[in-house]
Amino acid sequence: MQSRRLFGTNGIRGLVNHDLTTEFITKIGGAIGTFFQGGRIVVGHDGRTSSPMLVQAFTGSLTSTGCTVYNVGLAPTPAIQYAIKHNKMNGGVIITASHNPPEYNGIKVIADDGIELPREQETKIENVFFDDKIRRAKWDNIGRICQLPGILSTYKEAIKKHVDVTTIQKRRFHVVVDAGNGVGSLTAPYMLREMGCRVTTINANIDGTFPSRPSEPKPENLGELALTIKAINADIGVAYDGDADRSIFVDERGEIYWGDRTFALIEKHFLRNKTREIIVTPVSSSSLIKEIADKYGSKVVWTKVGSIIVSHMMKKVNAKLGGEENGGVFYAPHQPVRDGAMTTALILDIMAKTEKKLSKLLAELPIYHIEKDKVKCPNEFKERVLKELIKKVKNMNIDTTDGVKIWFTGKSSILIRPSGTEPIYRFYAEGKTRSKAVHLVNEYKTKLHEIINECKSS
Ligand code: MG
Fold this sequence. Notes:
- This protein has 458 residues and is of the alpha/beta class.
- The protein has three domains: 139 residues, Alpha-D-Glucose-1,6-Bisphosphate, Chain A, domain 3; 196 residues, Alpha-D-Glucose-1,6-Bisphosphate, subunit A, domain 3 (Alpha-D-Glucose-1,6-Bisphosphate, Chain A, domain 3, 3-Layer(aba) Sandwich); 89 residues, 2-Layer Sandwich (TATA-Binding Protein).
- Strands 1-5-4-2-3-6 form a six-stranded mixed beta sheet, sandwiched between helices. Strands 12-11-13-14-15 form a five-stranded mixed beta sheet, sandwiched between helices.
- A hairpin with a 5-residue loop joins strand 19 and strand 20.
- The longest helix is centred in the C-terminal third of the chain and has 24 residues.
- Magnesium ion binds next to loops.
């Protein structure tokens, strides 16, 4: 971890008992408690082997600063975020490393509006941490530790209010839920049964070693889900990441879709009969999002990559819908944070109202072929490489919101951006044909390799 910087794009992440020791947790817990000035703080966690240990250390430290801790135990990240806002708490802490490998864990700090803290507030916590300005309470002002029961049912009920449950019930959908051994198994299967669905679960036992598949719901990890759908003739499948804020969908034929395609389906049905809405999405999303927004007289606000950035931009521009290519959908009438169960309910709502299969609904969207890849690049060269790349393409139609996105005629584009967490550059290309997208990735991978080699040798 760099000096004076602890928070990354999604909170604090690190290796358990290496970066995230109980000593570190005690200290950061004190800094977070100092930041919240003795407020009412919700604490919850995912199903990782290290989460209970970290919660214990955290809880002790938070109460030492005078905060009252409301323990909600195991729960999906969006359910905890909803509980914070719904119960008018001052904030919350979620112990989770989302989709990272099992040896990792992390800390998400949530404000009273249910959204992760913006960067400037994270800096305040980092300052308390590094300047040793933790304020411990007097012995007679130490915070209490309470339980906050029932948050999962409140969360499920809240989601159901935003969809037409009666119409969904009539369709008797057969849904396969792949919880990926994460906490998504605590909510979505029950909510879907309450909505009249027949639910088959796979990998629904919470297990912090993630024995069934990697926790990230990428298409290459979802073969078992696709096979199960076909084997039992289900209508749809959905896979969640470890903390169930992201969801990836599979149609009745076993075809797996990237998140921006299902997001576009939600966007299309959301925008029907509406104009002048604002859709927020990172530059890594497909142009499909813009094509649909244009069609309905609405506008897209492109952001840097990062779910916290999308949430805060939605709040700023008063947008009701946002989404990411990785399967995050933000539906502000419920809450402006990504939410796997809410997304699932929205997709079923569309299937029920249109009486169409998922494959048909997705085939009706304009076609874009997407190709993703990555190239290794040492962290110390990332900035110089980006500068050199921008120099080479500056006369083209570019957007430098995050990395560099180049737009070409014929609705193709490529985004080349340094990863915020790994020593790599990521490529997201799209075109109206697969060969165009593949060609763009190969062309720019070669260009980037040349620039990286020049940086290394100079
Ligand atoms: Mg997640």
